[in-house]
Amino acid sequence: MKEINGSEKQKKLVQVVLDEKEVALIIKDIEELEFNDTKYKSAEKFEYDRRIILETAWNVSVVLQNKTSKISEIVDINLQRNGITDVKGKKIFSALRAKYKESNIIDYNELAEII
Question: Of residues 104 and 32, which shows the higher confidence score?
Fold first, then answer.
């Protein structure tokens, strides 16, 4: 989620979409997420999924073709496009939504709706 594959012009277009979706904040929160915050049954699977989600570079066409989708959907499509079929973002994004909804910070409540 930190790297974008493509030309400089494509990277700028993708970065605009990612900025609108607050991806920098979401990355930070995924990095800080703990196993106990999720519904994973295995800490190893949680760590694996989180690492794969964070390390998989953005595919320019995936982001631009799905820019109106929720970021969790874009992440799953991006993983598939990169040939990763054993990881889904569902549990991690569910944990983030719960964290944001529990927060009294209005911006976090809004963020819970867009992911």
Answer: 32
**HEC string for 5-22:** ECCHHHHHHHHHHHHHCC
Mean pLDDT (whole number) for 18-29: 94
Place of tokens 């990612």: 18
Token pair of 111, please?
Answer: 């963020």
pTM reported for the whole predicted model? 0.89
